[in-house]
Amino acid sequence: MVIDIRPPPAVVAISFCMNALSDSIAQMLGLGMEPKDLTFIQVSIRGVIIFLVTLVMVRIGSRRSLAEKTAFDAILLVILASVLSRAINGTAGFFTSIGAGIVLVVLHRFFGWIACRSHTSGKLIKGCPVVIIENGQLKRDEMRRNLISDHDLEEDLRLDAKTEEVEKIKIARLERSGDVSFIKADS
Fold it and tell me: Cα–Cα distance between 73 and 69 in angstroms, integer?
């Protein structure tokens, strides 16, 4: 008795179609090509795909990262942009770069989750606010430590506190985001 071990014709046809589709995608994206050999169309298609993938990543990740509220958030955006730009220009593997981007977004979300549940971890990951004015008195040591000049503080007073008089400020903090917040003294 002879056993026919050939795959059914439908499986052969599906396999052929999948290989053809895979080859077409590889050609369309210029997979395996040197960066200098990529065409305008291939780089453009890569750019569109990376744009859409990044949009999904940001939606999955934290909305706060887009606001760059802390160095923690800004770091994600800088590194993510660097990694994904390499997928567009072909200097790194296309799908490898997308995978690395997903890992970064998940890592950012994980650390954000930890920081949200632990005040101590939040201080380590995102930083702490620093008091730079208290009861109308400048805390010059804190200003120097945080590289805030008198001119920087005067600008923030005018723009945010709508005053030029330090004496009118009960407390001012350099927040984790790098912004200065003011609470005016009762008049």
Answer: 6
Altogether, the residues listed in the chain come to a count of 187
Nearest in space to 108 (alpha carbons), one of 132, 127, 125, 94: 125
Question: Which is more confident, 156 or 69?
Answer: 156
Q: Which two tokens stand for residue 87?
A: 């997928």
Q: In the chain, what are the domain boundaries?
A: 9-123, 129-184
Token pair belonging to 99: 């995978």
In angstroms, rounded to a whole number, what is the distance separating the alpha carbons of residues 130 and 85?
Answer: 36
Contacts 24+ apart (CB under 8 A), 140-149: 142/174, 146/174, 148/174, 148/180
**What class does CATH assign to 129-184?**
alpha beta
H or E element in which residue 179 lies: none
Looking up tokens 């970064």, which residue turns up? 104
- Among residues of the chain, what percentage have pLDDT more than 90? 53
